[in-house]
C-alpha cells in the first residue's frame, strides 16, 4: 500500500479511512476511539467487503470527489444512501422518478459538481429517453443500479426489466459494468467514476441481486 491514508468520514465514535493501494483500490479501515488494545500498538481493521461494501463504496465515491447524490429510495442502496446523506459535504435529492436524476446530474455537472444517481433496475426503463441528454452532450454520468429479477427473485413483475436492464442501457449508449461481489463493487465503482468524470462518459454499474440478499415480503 502507498504511505498515508485519506480521511473520509468522522463519526462520534469512529474514524473511517481509505487506504489506496498500488492499483488505486480503496481499503476501508475503522478505528474505534479508545477501544484499541493498548498492547497491540496497531489500529484494528474491521472492514469486510463481503458485508461492508456500501461503506467502501461511499469511500470510493468521496475519493472521486462526488458531492451530489440523486436517488429513488431503495433497500439495496439504503446503507450507501444513509452514509451519503450523513455527509455534510454531499447534497442529496430524493426523486419521484428516475429520469429526474439524469437531468439533475447533468445540471450538477454543469454547475461544477460531480454526481451519482442511485436506482433499482426496475427504474432504468424510466430513464431511456432522458439518457439521450448526457449521451449526446457528452456529459459525465455515473449510475449505480441495484438489480432485481435475478437470483431468488420472488416478484414476477421485476423479472422483465431485470432481463432488459443491461441491453437497454447499452442500446442508448451507456457503458455498463456488472459487479457480483463486494470487492467487485468497490473496484468497479472506482474505475467507473474515473471513466465517467475523466473521459466524459456515461457509465452504469449493475450490482447483482445475489450480493444484495434475498427479499421477501
Automatic annotation (TrEMBL):
<keyword id="KW-0670">Pyruvate</keyword>
<dbReference type="InterPro" id="IPR051818">
    <property type="entry name" value="TPP_dependent_decarboxylase"/>
</dbReference>
<keyword id="KW-0210">Decarboxylase</keyword>
<protein>
    <submittedName>
        <fullName>Phosphonopyruvate decarboxylase</fullName>
    </submittedName>
</protein>
<keyword id="KW-0456">Lyase</keyword>
<dbReference type="GO" id="GO:0016831">
    <property type="term" value="F:carboxy-lyase activity"/>
</dbReference>
<dbReference type="InterPro" id="IPR029061">
    <property type="entry name" value="THDP-binding"/>
</dbReference>
Amino acid at each position: 500500500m502507498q504511505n498515508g491514508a485519506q480521511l473520509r468520514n468522522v463519526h462520534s465514535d469512529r474514524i473511517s479511512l481509505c487506504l489506496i493501494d498500488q492499483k488505486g483500490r480503496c481499503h476501508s479501515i475503522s478505528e474505534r476511539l479508545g477501544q484499541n488494545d493498548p498492547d497491540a500498538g496497531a489500529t484494528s481493521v474491521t472492514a469486510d467487503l463481503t458485508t461492508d461494501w456500501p461503506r467502501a463504496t461511499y469511500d470510493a465515491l468521496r475519493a472521486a470527489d462526488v458531492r451530489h447524490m440523486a436517488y429513488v429510495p431503495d433497500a439495496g442502496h439504503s446503507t450507501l444512501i444513509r452514509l451519503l446523506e450523513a455527509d455534510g459535504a454531499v447534497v442529496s435529492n430524493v426523486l419521484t422518478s428516475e429520469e429526474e436524476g439524469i437531468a439533475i446530474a447533468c445540471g450538477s455537472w454543469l454547475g461544477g459538481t460531480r454526481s451519482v444517481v442511485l436506482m433499482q433496475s426496475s427504474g432504468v426503463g424510466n430513464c431511456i429517453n432522458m439518457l439521450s441528454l448526457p449521451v449526446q452532450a457528452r456529459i459525465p454520468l455515473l449510475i449505480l443500479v441495484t438489480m432485481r429479477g435475478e437470483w431468488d427473485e420472488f416478484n414476477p413483475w421485476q423479472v422483465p426489466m431485470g432481463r432488459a436492464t443491461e441491453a437497454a442501457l447499452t442500446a442508448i449508449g451507456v457503458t455498463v459494468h456488472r459487479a457480483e461481489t463486494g470487492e467487485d463493487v468497490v473496484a468497479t465503482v472506482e474505475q467507473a467514476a474515473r471513466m465517467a468524470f475523466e473521459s466524459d462518459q456515461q457509465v452504469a454499474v449493475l450490482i447483482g441481486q445475489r450480493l444484495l440478499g434475498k427479499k421477501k415480503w
